Amino acid sequence: MDQKVLQALADPMVFGALVVRTADGGVALRPLGGEWGNDIREAVQEVAEKYPGCKVRLLEQKCGLRMYEEFFEGIIPRDRVLPYADYLPEAKAALEEIRQQVLDPHRKEFWRRFWEEKSETPGKSSSKDFPGR
To answer: Taxonomically, which superkingdom (predicted)?
Structure first.
């Protein structure tokens, strides 16, 4: 595997990769993000042209507190998980402040009431309109 591609997978600006199974059974990776570009469709077009008849799988990183809690918490500290580990200290402090506000029990109660009121108000969107909730 190309060393540049492998190094790109640890770049904090890279958010995913296309895994390509070539027609002859080989495997290739095409990083997404950073110097490789962010447009997934362009990347798919690129690998389709480079590897005619290939099969492609998208692997995309989902960042966030839930990912950390599910896979890393209790094993390694949060400041060792990429891309968070490479953020500037100021950015980490701002993210932590936001995280604390979200986790604050008073704020949770505020948002719970907010969404209840939204769902009861005719003509307003309800929580059913937000399938991720």
So the answer is: Bacteria
